[in-house]
Amino acid sequence: MPLFPSYPGLIGRGSPETCSNTQLSCHNTTVVQDLCCFNAPGGQLLQTQFWDTDPSTGPSNSWTVHGLWPDHCDGTFDSTCDTSREYTDISGILTSFGKTDLLSFMNTYWKDISGDDESFWEHEWAKHGTCVSTLDPTCYTDYQSKQEVPDFFQKAVDLFQSLPTYDWLSAAGITPSTTKTYSASDIQAALSAKHGGHQVTIGCSSGALDEVWYHYNVQGSVQTGTFVAADPDGTKSTCPDTGIKYLPKSGSSTGGGSTTTTSSSGGSQPTGGSGTPFSGNGFLEVTTGGSQKGCLISAGTWFTTGTCATFTATASGNGFTLKSSKGNCGISNNAFTCGSNVSSTVFTSSGGSLAAGGSTGFFADSVPSGSTQATVFTTSHDTSLTITWSSQ
After folding, report:
1. Where is the active site (predicted)?
2. Domain map of the chain by residue range?
């Protein structure tokens, strides 16, 4: 059963864009009936971030997204509020609504520590997204099935992009180190100064900083309302007062036993694994111009600065198939791709390199940089690649 009741007049009442209620959540003195324009009972929204170092996830100079959580205004919260909307295939849903740029960003900055991003996104939606009252399907005019999903993930990412924790800490002289330690007050001062003077929640594990939560109250709906910085709705920080470690990201980003090297474009890729055989779990590393430059990510595209995806190689006939968290991998329209609707290609290996149709030649238009992803082709393009296997 959904947590939020359907009040008279809500169905077909127009989207949150038409909300005239500008009352700030967590500040009402009487019960608000229109929960399409007022977030309740989860009136305080938290944009939460991870700093994962063992294993590392995401770029070495950025925190990653944990989620967007609707807390009650007293430090408590609901979870998994509508089991009928525990959707799967978040990637497919986002793609169906044209949110390919959003999905690309999530593939880099919304990472699961075990390498299963899709399951992580499904968990965050089911546990927290279904508890946002203004995202209830009855709050949409001419509702399209699952359209609240891209609204949830887009808002979480938009907030994350406005909260560059790594940069704010660095500007205050708080940088990752294996030897330095910091005080909670210094960390708070650096972040609260950028959050309207409001305190944030900092989380530690074994004395090392690994989470930050930014708290907001909202005027209007989560989709289109105004997020107003707020103090935490309860005492939640788990860091000691002093001696806090802020460790650098290092090691395999997905937990395998590989070491890392840094490419000229700044990304970390696993190295040192075996190039053969293609069996079990591993990474697909890309070499061009005689040096390793990045790896393939879960959609099958080439990335030089993000987190390598874990692929599963399974013996099939005279070769093997590959699968990522997106689904089966295959050659479609002369391009390497992975997804829920992709037919598996039986690959082979030659001299330790991945081969498709008996050829180890792969190509791209150019070497990607920054957040750019490059399509990997089996037909000739400007940049020649080889793809090898690094066992996890």
Report:
1. 66, 124, 128
2. 16-245, 259-391
For the chain, helix (H) and strand (E) counts, in that order, are 6, 20
Using alpha carbons, list the distances in angstroms from residue 267 to 271, 282, 336, 370.
Answer: 13, 18, 22, 9
Q: Strands, DSSP E only, in the chain? A: 44-50, 64-71, 181-182, 201-205, 208-219, 226-229, 244-245, 259-262, 268-271, 280-288, 291-296, 302-303, 311-316, 319-324, 327-332, 335-339, 348-350, 353-355, 362-364, 383-391
Q: Report the SS3 class of residue 108.
A: helix
Q: Is 285 a catalytic residue?
A: no
Of these residues, 128, 195, 215, 285, which one is catalytic? 128
Which parts of the chain fold into alpha helices (H)?
Answer: 90-96, 100-109, 117-127, 148-161, 165-171, 184-192
124 is catalytic: yes
Q: pLDDT by residue for the chain (392 residues), tens digit each?
A: 333 333 333 333 335 457 776 789 999 888 888 899 999 999 999 999 999 998 999 999 999 999 999 999 998 999 999 999 999 999 999 999 999 999 999 999 999 999 999 999 999 999 999 999 999 999 999 899 999 999 999 999 999 999 999 999 999 999 999 999 999 999 999 999 999 999 999 999 999 999 999 999 999 999 999 999 999 988 779 999 999 999 999 743 333 333 333 333 333 333 334 334 688 888 898 988 767 788 899 899 988 866 678 889 998 888 899 999 889 999 999 999 999 999 999 999 887 789 898 889 999 999 887 668 899 999 988 898 999 888 76
Q: What is the pTM of this model?
A: 0.63
Rounded to 10 deg, the angle between the 117-127 and 100-109 helix axes is 110
Q: What tokens appear for 353 in the block?
A: 């390199």
Using CA atoms, how far apart are residues 360 and 387, in angstroms rounded to an integer?
Answer: 8
Omega before 277 cis (within 30°)?
A: yes
The active-site residue out of 66, 148, 211, 215 is 66
Catalytic residue among 122, 124, 148, 285: 124
> For residues 257 and 278, what is the distance between their CA atoms, to the nearest angstrom?
16
Task: Mention every residue, 6+ apart, whose C-beta is less than 8 A from residue 120.
Answer: 110, 111, 112
The DSSP code for 347 is B
Q: Which CATH superfamily is domain 16-245 in?
A: Ribonuclease T2-like (3.90.730.10)
Is there a catalytic annotation at residue 128? Answer: yes
